[in-house]
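Worked example

This section walks through a single chain of length 364. The input is the sequence exactly as stored; nothing has been trimmed or padded.
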Amino acid sequence: MTNVVQLSFPSRARSEADRLAALTASFAEDRRLGDDVFWLKENAELLNILECTGTQPDEQALAVHQEFYNGIEKRLSFFPQYYRFLLSICLDLEDLGIGGDKGARLVDWAADQGLARAELSDLQRAEARRLMLRRGRDPLPEDGGLTDRLHGFISRSATFAMPNKKAAYELTHTIFYLTEYGRKSLDFGLEAEKSLTFAGTLAYLDQNADLLAEICVAMRYANVMPPAIWDDWLTTHTASFVIAADDCATPSHDDYHEFLVCNWSRSMAGDRAFARPVSFGPLSFHAAPRRSAPLRQMSQAMLDLDSSRSGDWGRMRGYVAEMLNDDAMLVLQEAEAACADFDAFFAGFARTGLPMPMPLQRLA
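Given that input, the structure is written out below as tokens.
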């Protein structure tokens, strides 16, 4: 890309300052082009995690974004559809210390243009509100019910006992925005805690570290302690990432988001984030293969049983266990141990209490 400052670095980054500089440089310069929406997404995610964890990159880490920051108002005026990414990058760069005060003026411009009113989902409206309130402007002052609707969503725990990754990610982001990434202490209540526990149990049964890491972060923001089994697995999983460099890097086919959120979750657990030495230059991030996960087989078993299935885990456990190999069974046992009320989770997972929308049509 052409809109970054080229710097000379040592070949291997071992100090924290150099590691952060290597990461920011790789994301800014070596993975995608600066006018690609995926460049905006990746860099917004990295900078957001650095900012909300209180990580302090130094001048060399931020310098790769200086030219982008210098021209960000031009991009915002031409790409208003990406205003949330652009505002997020701008505000995080300023709060991380790049120097400048464009954010307040860009927020006022975006609010005056009514960009948040073009959003179709409450989650996107909540993100827009959270971003602009960082500079003191509510883009949706007329929408007094938004917060109540978000609380209603996260308190419907039945939603999160059934496999639905989109809903689970929306649960975590709702808590991120409502708590202002942990800056505001809120009591979400027992149903919201149950929602997080159910969503995390599904993520663990699927061995989905990306989703589970976000859930653990959201739990801590909601003043809920994640189960030790989840934390221990994420610690091991985060340490197992392979970081490919230079000609071996394949940034268009990697697990960068999982790498970022796993490190975020470890930082929230009190560990050091981004502690691995990395090279300056192109990088890609590759998760270790997942263990055998029982979630799909459990779901298929319940579907195949039709009216014979039960929401009673005590009755169904043996039936499910017969279908699993040893590794998948171990994951199931760990998920049971981590969930304080696995019976209630399974009752929702089995979906036995829902009436048929219409009678099944039998073939003659």
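What to look for: The chain is about 55% helix and 5% strand.
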